[in-house]
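Reminder to self: tokens first, then the designed residues, so the page reads top to bottom the way the pipeline ran.
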């Protein structure tokens, strides 16, 4: 039934593109879907028009079938339903108004000192839920050229050497990560290395790096820093999260301030009366 409906709909759609926009595309009980309804809801970015129209009609049919059955079983004229609809409408209007206030007037800029203070004041809230590390790694084929040079470059912190290492990795490495100034989760690399590899052992070793061979690959791994699950999470890891927390907190304060101002203005203008 559904496929027949879609065939009919597509036929109507493509054969009626130049006809009147009041052409009916589908009907469900007393509801009618017009050609114009589809055009009005057709986004400019849609490339697969057929698929979009098919989904639009399917969704429209499902909605109207459920709505028809709901109206049969539930009275939309009951006081309870009217109250729910009214409450929902009021909540939606208030939400839209608040969002416009925030979009137009709310300042989202946060100074770094405020973020640091929040971190320091609530430091025990920021516990790691998994191991993290700072480091670099390269996974490369055993037969790649100039392997000795990449071993040397891998141990260097010189900017020119790092650039040369990245260029080499782009050509020959199957996987690599060389930004050892940021924290990464251990789980992000755990599956990439042989099970015998222990980042913790490398971190506690004097040279902080190691080279492994397995199958046809060579694994280079350097651990600059390592923190275990349950430890205090570094500030750099939590900075963006804290910024979002502060912004959300400030939004609530801003909306509360606007609400209080509106209430005060209403009282002063005698538009609010409590008996």
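Designed residues (275 positions):
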């Amino acid at each position: 039934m559904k496929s027949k409906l879609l065939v009919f709909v597509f036929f109507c759609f493509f054969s009626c593109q130049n006809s009147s926009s009041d052409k009916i595309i589908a009907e469900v009980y007393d509801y009618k879907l017009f050609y114009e309804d589809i055009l009005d809801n057709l986004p400019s970015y849609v490339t697969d028009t057929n698929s979009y129209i098919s989904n639009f009609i399917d969704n429209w049919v499902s909605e109207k079938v459920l709505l028809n059955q709901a109206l049969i079983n539930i009275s939309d004229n009951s006081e309870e339903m009217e109250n729910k609809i009214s409450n929902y409408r009021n909540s939606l209007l208030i939400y839209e108004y608040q969002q416009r206030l925030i979009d137009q007037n709310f300042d989202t800029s946060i100074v770094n000192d405020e973020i640091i203070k929040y971190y320091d004041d609530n430091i025990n809230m920021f516990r790691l839920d998994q191991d993290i590390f700072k480091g670099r790694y390269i996974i490369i084929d055993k037969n790649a050229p100039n392997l000795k040079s990449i071993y040397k470059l891998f141990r260097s912190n010189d900017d020119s050497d790092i650039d040369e290492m990245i260029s080499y990795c782009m050509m020959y490495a199957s996987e690599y990560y060389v930004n050892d100034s940021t924290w990464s989760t251990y789980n992000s690399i755990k599956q990439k290395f042989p099970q015998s590899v222990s980042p913790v052992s490398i971190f506690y070793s004097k040279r902080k790096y190691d080279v492994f061979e397995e199958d046809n690959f060579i694994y280079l791994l350097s651990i600059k820093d390592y923190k275990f699950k349950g430890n205090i999470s570094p500030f750099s890891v939590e900075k963006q999260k804290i910024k979002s927390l502060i912004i959300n907190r400030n939004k609530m304060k801003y909306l509360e301030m606007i609400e209080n101002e509106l209430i005060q203005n209403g009282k002063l203008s005698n538009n609010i009366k409590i008996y």
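Residues 6-11 have pLDDT under 50 and may be disordered.
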